[in-house]
Amino acid sequence: MNDVTDVKLDERWKTALKDEFEAPYMAALKSFLLEEKRLGKAIFPKGSEYFRALDLTPLGSVKVVILGQDPYHGEGQAHGLCFSVREGVRVPPSLVNIYKEMNTDLGIPPARHGNLENWARQGVLLLNSVLTVEQARAASHQGKGWEKFTDAVIARVNEQEQPAVFILWGAYAQRKAAFVDATKHLVLKAPHPSPLSAHNGFFGGRYFSKANAFLEEHGIAPVNWALG
Questions:
Q1: Which of 221, 208, 174, 213 lies closest to 61 in space, CA to CA?
Q2: Which positions are annotated as active-site residues?
Q3: Among 17, 19, 111, 220, which one has the highest count of C-beta atoms within 10 angstroms of its own C-beta?
Q4: pLDDT tens across 149-172, in order?
Q5: Which are the contacts of 139, defined by CB distance < 8 A and separation ≥ 6?
């Protein structure tokens, strides 16, 4: 990843993040991932989906940012978007609670699947802080460089002229995006939707209607949150 030309990525992000891809920490991260694979470890998501969130939501079209922490570490779950799983995979508990809140907020029935690509294609950047994980080992790739890279992603969105909505569920996401300019962007903070914390203030936050109201106030098309 030390040569930006080797990375298959939306050109707008590639240009904006050129310095990151050429930085020593990304070369070290690439070496780490290659060594893990050489040792026969299963890494999720697959390599072509490391930057899936950026591919589906190009810089300049980001309307909403939702931050996660790590990819799911179970077989067949992670596909490059935070909180999202492929169709046919059981909807994770945190996403079940997100769907419950969406139903309360907008009257949208919970989707029968957990694939959030439709959100991403509309400008919802579903960004994990760490973009890879070893199978069955949660948080196994923390502290390897991904956090610095995704800090840069958030910074680029923060710098864009168009205002955006940052939905920060949980203390980790709130710390990570603490530098976001709340005078330009809408920053919504709440407990994480996980079953362990959702009843401590996540429910009732009306994040989806608040996000759309802000977008419409600024002449930006709202997000159709329905997933079918």
A1: 221
A2: 70
A3: 17
A4: 999 999 999 999 999 999 999 999
A5: 69, 70, 130, 133
